[in-house]
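**Protein record**
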Amino acid sequence: MSEHDKSGNPVDRVAVSAWEYLNLRLDELKLKGTEGLSLFFGRFVVYAIIFLFFAVFLQFIAFAVAYRLGEMIGSIPLGFAIMAGVMLVFILLFYLMRKRMFVNSFVRFFIDIFFGE
């Protein structure tokens, strides 16, 4: 506060103090938002990389199982078709359970990032 504000009207001093308080709260909100977004994007990148490696790993496992299954039944294309059917069943299960597995988890995850201490 300037020298004029200290000796001025008490209502003016309260108004200036309130304005400074609001500016400080706004700055705090900006900092918390920046912190939350930084944490979110940092975790997002890490989880995206882990997901990619896991997806590639599963793809190679699926190819190996499909090829081995095809050798066992005598038809490589049929082995791959059976494996595609198994993958389709897994995709359907994930789709049906998406809210319980992903949406609720993501809501808790975002709440933890933005409001957790």
